[in-house]
From TrEMBL:
<dbReference type="Pfam" id="PF24570">
    <property type="entry name" value="BACK_BPM_SPOP"/>
</dbReference>
<dbReference type="GO" id="GO:0016567">
    <property type="term" value="P:protein ubiquitination"/>
</dbReference>
<comment type="pathway">
    <text>Protein modification; protein ubiquitination.</text>
</comment>
<comment type="similarity">
    <text>Belongs to the Tdpoz family.</text>
</comment>
<feature type="domain" description="BPM/SPOP BACK">
    <location>
        <begin position="77"/>
        <end position="129"/>
    </location>
</feature>
<dbReference type="Pfam" id="PF00651">
    <property type="entry name" value="BTB"/>
</dbReference>
<dbReference type="InterPro" id="IPR045005">
    <property type="entry name" value="BPM1-6"/>
</dbReference>
<protein>
    <recommendedName>
        <fullName>BTB domain-containing protein</fullName>
    </recommendedName>
</protein>
<feature type="domain" description="BTB">
    <location>
        <begin position="2"/>
        <end position="68"/>
    </location>
</feature>
<dbReference type="InterPro" id="IPR000210">
    <property type="entry name" value="BTB/POZ_dom"/>
</dbReference>
<dbReference type="InterPro" id="IPR056423">
    <property type="entry name" value="BACK_BPM_SPOP"/>
</dbReference>
<dbReference type="InterPro" id="IPR011333">
    <property type="entry name" value="SKP1/BTB/POZ_sf"/>
</dbReference>
Length: 135
């Protein structure tokens, strides 16, 4: 590989704090405790999910999806669903859609910024949500 001869490799689209956690995971197969993460744990798990998807680290992807699900709320479910759709997390996506139905919170969620971003990026999600909420 050409990188083996280089003294420095630049990784695009990954923040140093995210890369540090990613590297730690690669060596330990563990995530650090939430209180050791830089910034918001939810944001960190969203960034880690993106990195895990990009580098095909399925176990890390599953662990991030679990952490995001632990923190789901009315305010966060649309953003979590956005991540699930963007990074191909079918199980997390299904849980988020079920959350809309089970908690009967659809009318509250549609008023969040996360929902607006979700629908702008994935317009087809509206039909899927309507089908589940109406059922």
């Amino acid at each position: 590989m050409a990188e083996a001869k280089m003294s420095r490799i630049t990784l695009e689209e990954i923040e140093p704090a995210v890369f540090k956690v990613l590297l730690r995971f690669m060596y330990t197969d563990m995530l650090p405790p939430d209180d050791e993460l830089a910034g918001s744990p939810v944001e960190m798990y969203q960034h880690l999910l993106a990195a895990a998807d990009r580098y095909a680290m399925e176990r890390l992807k599953l662990m991030c999806a679990d952490k995001l699900w632990e923190n789901v709320s009315v305010d966060a479910v649309a953003a979590t669903l956005y991540c699930a759709k963007t990074y191909n997390c079918r199980e997390l996506k299904d849980k988020c859609i079920a959350f809309f139905v089970e908690e009967k919170i659809f009318k509250k969620v549609v008023l969040t910024d996360g929902y607006v971003q979700l629908v702008q990026k994935f317009p087809s999600i509206m039909a899927e949500l309507r089908e589940k909420v109406g059922a």
